[in-house]
Specification:
With about 325 residues, this protein is an all-alpha fold. It has a single domain, classed as Farnesyl Diphosphate Synthase (Orthogonal Bundle). The protein is built from 17 helices and two strands. A two-stranded antiparallel sheet has the order 1-2. β1 and β2 form a beta hairpin. The longest helix has 28 residues, at about 195-220. The chain is globular, with a radius of gyration of 19 Å.
Length: about 325
């Protein structure tokens, strides 16, 4: 698997180290117990897509050279903390036992502590955003709201075999794409880019985020537990019928698939449902939708000609379509 082009940027390892250091510093709490819970998933790793996108967006400023300014790094960290907090809450909702290849926070410490630790991460994110100015603070607060709205849209459609594709896209725009869009926008704001350029970066992040979630949903169907670092096929169990499932439901074997869904499933019923989706055209059709969003993301960066950071973002978007052999986290 080729390396993500974003990692080819000059000084990117310095920036990544700065992100890791700021993440760990941000979650230090007055009590060792909270520090341990809040830093649990940070220690488990992750690709740090959101903070590195913020860094790359900030580097789109003409004439920028050298490591990213600390405020740009901290802007990206604020978004990553929101992402991590949402994972803590998601794992409580899903009753997940693993995340990123390690025991989930709720499994290790219980639901109550997992919720409180997730709240702590959101609070720390808001604190950092406030230090970066009113615009960043307002944007991050609005993004948290959109994330919650996206999750509610998904929950209200749980186990609905009649879920529409429009409802699915609205949900993933809120719960995933809004955060990636905000990461790029915050990077541009903190780096003091031109408003037109900030809007272009925002559109890039939104389109990338849509493709990102669709690819993640495809992986939920085709990947293994080991590849994902969490149980595969979990969306079928939870009734979160994603794009490959919706396209399969509309296909020739849709009637049989619909008869298996509509309620929690396990065992042979789950295996058969997953096999039907895999055997349908739903996966290929979903990849085509993801590809269209990738092209939209690439086109959004047209204002940034001959800027290495923008080239890296374009490459990262196209690279997303090659990730079926590795987990998207």
């Amino acid at each position: 698997m080729a390396e993500n082009p974003l990692l080819s940027l000059d000084h990117i390892e310095t920036d990544r180290s700065a992100v890791e250091a700021e993440l760990r510093a941000a979650v230090v709490a007055p009590t060792p117990a909270m520090t341990e819970m809040a830093s649990h998933l940070i220690g488990a790793g992750g690709k740090r897509v959101r903070p590195l996108f913020a860094v790359a967006a900030g580097r789109c400023r003409p004439g920028h050279d050298g490591p990213a300014p600390l405020d740009v790094v901290r802007g990206g960290v604020s978004v990553e903390l929101v992402h991590l907090g949402s994972l803590y809450h998601d794992d409580v909702i899903d009753e997940a036992t693993t995340r990123r290849g390690v025991e989930s926070v709720n499994s290790r410490w219980g639901n109550l502590r997992a919720i409180l630790a997730g709240d702590f991460l959101l609070a720390k994110a808001s604190e950092i955003a406030a230090s970066l100015g009113v615009e960043v603070a307002g944007l991050l607060a609005a993004t948290i709201g959109r994330l919650c709205e996206g999750e509610v849209l998904e929950l209200q459609d749980a186990y609905q075999v009649t879920r529409t594709e429009e409802a699915y896209l609205a949900s993933i725009e809120g719960k995933t794409a809004s955060l990636l869009s905000s990461a790029c926008r915050i990077g541009g704001i903190v780096a003091d880019l031109d408003p037109v350029e900030i809007d272009a970066l925002t559109e890039f992040g939104l389109a990338y985020g849509m493709a990102f979630q669709i690819v993640d949903d495809i992986l939920d169907i085709v990947a293994t537990d080991e590849q994902l670092g969490k149980p595969a096929g979990h969306d079928l169990v939870e009734g979160a019928y994603n794009l490959p499932v919706l396209r399969a439901l509309a296909g020739p074997t849709g009637e049989e698939l619909a008869s298996l869904l509509g309620a929690p499933i396990a065992g042979e019923q789950w295996e058969r449902a997953r096999a039907l989706v895999r055997q349908s055209s739903g996966v290929d059709e979903s990849m085509a939708v993801a590809s269209a969003f990738v092209e939209r993301a690439v086109e959004a960066l047209d204002p940034f000609a001959n800027r290495p950071a923008a080239d890296a973002l374009r490459g990262a978007a196209r690279h997303l379509l090659t990730t079926l052999g590795e987990p998207v986290r």
